[in-house]
Amino acid sequence: MALELGMLVPHTPRMCHEEHAPEFQKELIQGMHEVARVIESVQPDAIVLVSCHWLSSFHHFVDATPEHKGVLTAFECPELISDVPYHHLGDSQLAGQLVEAGQKAGIPVVKVDDSTYVWDYGTVVPLRYLVPKGNIPIVDLSVTWAASLEETYFWGQEIGKVLRESDKRVMFVSSGALAHNLLRGPHLMPTLAEQALDNQFLEYLKGNDLESARNMLPQYAKAAGVESGGRHLAMLLGVLAESPSLIKVNIMVMVNLQAVQMSS
Question: Which CATH number describes the domain made up of 3-259?
Fold first, then answer.
């Protein structure tokens, strides 16, 4: 089986530079380092990552650029993420296979091959921890506002099929928060009700009960203001639909700290 692992990881801006991260995010960062060690031990041929901050209006984009190199200043929070260089190889072949599969399934998937395109912080921040050596090719995916959770799940299923049938060993990363009703103040936690919903969803993931997680997602996404409307979760669930045992839920990563808001 070529799909090695699926995981849900955070990208909160204050963790971009570990040396400047606040104390309350140290546990979160430790969890990211633990996942990085798992990735290093497996040494996959590629990572496919969907980012809640690559927001597309109508099409599902797949970044097929053979080399990702640039400098990121995040337009949402330039005081936290400024002049951050990144350099990763891409995987044009795998990206092309994903695009072809999506289009054959009737999904509006578009290939992007543009060396001038600058990655978003939902992509750059987690990769600074997960692939610090930049030695694993990356295929980046968008979340699409015109797509329903059901369409996004279906797209995830097509992605999962490609990855399972590939001769490459691939990991899938969903980069985004759970409860995400923004508040001004990084120390502010989600409400008790939002935390309860987060915890129930995570219990389904940890128990490999992906069907219950899928059934919960629409109402959960609305009630807790889940980032990207829950699309990154729908895609993850679709990818793992035929491989539920592959999900990596690291409690250090998945605690409610990961939902600490993206604001300053």
Answer: 3.40.830.10
